[in-house]
Amino acid sequence: MSLVHTQQQQRNSARIGMNISTANSRLRKMIMWDLILETDRNWCFRCGKKIKDISDLSIDHKQPWRAADDPKTSFFDLNNIAFSHFSCNTGANGGGGNARKTHCPQGHPLAGDNLRVSTRGYRICRACERAYRQRKYRTKRLSLMAKRKTRAAQNRVVETP
User: Fold this and answer.
1) Which one, 4, 15, 99, 122, has the greatest CB density within 10 A?
2) For residue 95, what pLDDT is reported?
3) How far is Cα 153 from Cα 151, in angstroms, rounded to an integer?
4) Cα(26)–Cα(32) distance, integer angstroms
5) Domain carrying residue 139
6) Cα–Cα distance between 71 and 69 in angstroms, integer?
């Protein structure tokens, strides 16, 4: 890559406030999302539910391409491509045993109102998250109270008779 080309990329990146490759990827995804909506193809291949937001869109392979006789052909085969929720596609096609879990390690169900999906597609148990935040709050509060007591004790003037 020439110095002139690199400098041009840096100027373009500065103009739009992000790496030009990142911007191109986002633009392509926005164009694809618009076409998906126009053709009513925003249905998840894995769960069958509607994909409502571009941030949840994932390109999915219907059949695992890694295990195919010809992985390259299987990867680029448009008949093997579908769309899914990011969270549904995470760990699909082999591996990702967490995608199949129905309960968290504490036994709470990973479904309904107790399920939160992070922006990265991780499934989070709301009950455990709430308990964690409460423990963290209590610990922080007790620590602050101990510090206040220590400061108060240090600030007390010992009176002599």
Assistant:
1) 99
2) 46
3) 5
4) 10
5) 102-161
6) 6
Number of domains in the chain: 1
Q: Pick 123 or 4 by higher pLDDT.
A: 123
- Calculate mean pLDDT across residues 41-59: 91
Provide the β-strand partners of residue 61. 81
**Beta strand 123-125 pairing with 115-117:** antiparallel
- Find residue 59's DSSP bridge partners: 83
| Residue 161 token pair | 């008779």
Cβ neighbours around 69 below 10 Å, total: 6
DSSP state of 113: G
Q: Is residue 154 part of a domain?
A: yes
Tokens of 22: 């990142």
129: phi then psi, degrees, rounded to nearest 5? -65, -45
pLDDT at 31 over 90: yes
Question: Residue 125 forms beta bridges with which residues?
Answer: 115
83 strand-pairing partners: 59
> What is the three-class DSSP state of 92?
coil
- Tell me whether residue 8 is in a domain: no
DSSP code string of 29-87 = HHHHHHHHHHTT--B-TTT--B---GGGEEEEESS-STTSSSHHHHHH-GGGEEEEEHH
Q: Is residue 124 part of a domain?
A: yes
